[in-house]
From TrEMBL:
The keyword Signal applies. InterPro entries: NAD(P)-bd_dom_sf (IPR036291), Sc_DH/Rdtase_CS (IPR020904), SDR_fam (IPR002347). Belongs to the short-chain dehydrogenases/reductases (SDR) family. It comes from the Eukaryota. GO terms for biological process: steroid metabolic process. It holds the Pfam family adh_short. GO terms for molecular function: oxidoreductase activity. Residues 1-17 form the signal peptide. The keyword Acetylation does not apply. Keywords: Oxidoreductase, Signal. This is Retinol dehydrogenase 16. PROSITE patterns: ADH_SHORT. It comes from Camelus dromedarius.
Length: 411
């Protein structure tokens, strides 16, 4: 039985591999319109498709970005300046595209639309931000995608072509505040509804869901400045809640993750190219090992488990310090040893720290054993706390407890 099952699985993957290798004909006669070509994924995709012989219409935000792209590509590639937050700019770019993809033999309509333009800042805990902070990101990442798509949709439908929307793994699982995750969830919803509507007209819609890559969107200098600006505009009550050490601790934790960010942008652009050129493109493309092995599986986990992982691996607001000042015994989980040392310097000997790695089972098991030893036979869990919610009383017996946020126990 198992042999037959293995044979069926192998046959399935073989057929899938063969099916996905089928390429659309007459690619050199097809036009592709790409937004956000100044840098990053859009820039590399424009150069990559130009080398393949496709007719690339590259939209850049700045003239400088357009000039640099033209220097690196052939005469086939053409550029236009586009600000996806402005209706008049989108209308002008749409007219420009129409003039290039006129009713000529084999050049009817727009074969591919790639909505790549996007920003990631301002990003910070939600209550640090204003409505305008959210709208700044939504205007580009979501509303810009919608308006550009609706403007060019008649041309794409005429060619029975492709719409490729760049989303993110954060469109599947929201791990931080601000408009970025909100916008990417919106892109996913818009793409799903669009795909079902356009299937009647032979148009295929694909989503690109990259993990974390080193691009302008993940520029640490710009992110740090934006994060500090959000902190400066936060209310005194919020600042008291989070504490002055939260910002440097949070930014330091991001710096420790930076070496893991992939610099191989072709992992993303190869997926984009497949979505545009394959006869049978996928609906979703997870790009990068972190997306495939961490974020995607996490998105299918039960919500309580994802919450546990997020709470335990995030820097703590100053609430832990407040509990220590009240005389409670605090068991604090920190992301880094430096963060744990800083916390211990500011608290009494009652507070104890542990440094778990939530991606390693043995680390979680060791931390669990450590908590059990701290609770001991004469100590029970009185209440637990996790950021953003008030402490909750419990009647949990010794050795049976939830692992959420900052633990507190008293004799």
């Amino acid at each position: 039985m198992w042999l037959y099952l293995a044979a069926l699985v192998g046959l399935y993957h073989l057929l899938r591999w063969y099916r996905e290798r089928q390429v659309v004909s007459h690619l050199r006669d097809k036009y592709i319109f790409i937004t956000g070509c100044d840098s990053g994924f859009g820039n590399l995709l424009a150069r990559q498709l130009d080398l393949q012989g496709l007719r690339v219409l590259a939209a850049c935000l700045t003239e400088k970005g357009a000039q640099q792209l033209r220097k690196q590509t052939s005469d086939r590639l053409e550029t236009v300046i586009l600000d996806v937050t402005k209706t008049e700019s989108i209308a002008a770019a749409t007219q420009w595209v129409k003039e290039h993809v006129g009713d000529r033999v084999l050049l009817v309509g727009l074969w591919g639309l790639v909505n790549n333009a996007g920003i990631s800042i301002p990003t910070a805990p939600n209550e640090w931000l204003t409505k305008q902070d959210f709208m700044k990101i939504l205007d580009v990442n979501l509303l810009g995608v919608i308006e550009v798509t609706l403007s060019l949709l008649p041309l794409v439908r005429k060619a029975r072509g492709r719409v490729v929307n760049v989303s993110s793994v954060m469109g599947r699982i929201s791990l931080f505040g601000g408009g970025y995750c909100v916008s990417k969830y919106g892109v996913e919803a818009f793409s799903d509804s669009l795909r079902r509507e356009l299937s009647h007209f032979g148009v295929k819609v694909a989503m690109i869901e990259p993990g974390v890559f080193s691009t302008n969107i993940t520029n640490m200098e710009a992110f740090s400045q934006s994060f500090r600006t959000a902190w400066d505009q936060a209310s005194p009550e919020v600042k008291e809640l989070y504490g002055e050490t939260f910002v440097p601790t949070f930014l330091e934790s991001l710096e420790t993750l930076k070496p893991r960010w992939s610099k191989n942008l072709s992992l993303v652009t190869n997926c984009m190219e497949h979505a545009l050129t394959a006869c049978h493109p996928r609906t979703r493309y997870s790009c990068g090992w972190d997306a495939k092995l961490f974020y995607l599986p996490m998105s299918y986990m039960p919500t309580f488990l994802v919450d546990f992982m997020a709470y335990w691996s995030s820097p703590r607001p100053a609430q832990a310090l407040q509990l220590d000042l009240r005389g409670l015994r605090v068991l604090a989980a920190c992301l880094t040893e430096k963060g744990a040392q800083q916390l211990r310097k500011q608290t009494s000997d009652r507070l104890e720290t542990v440094i778990p790695d939530v991606t390693r089972t043995e680390s979680i098991a060791a931390a669990t054993q450590w908590v059990e030893e701290c609770l001991g036979a004469e100590i029970h869990l009185d209440f637990f706390y996790h950021p953003g919610k008030p402490p909750l009383s419990t009647n949990i017996p010794t050795g049976v407890f939830p692992i959420l946020g900052t633990f507190t126990c008293q004799a």
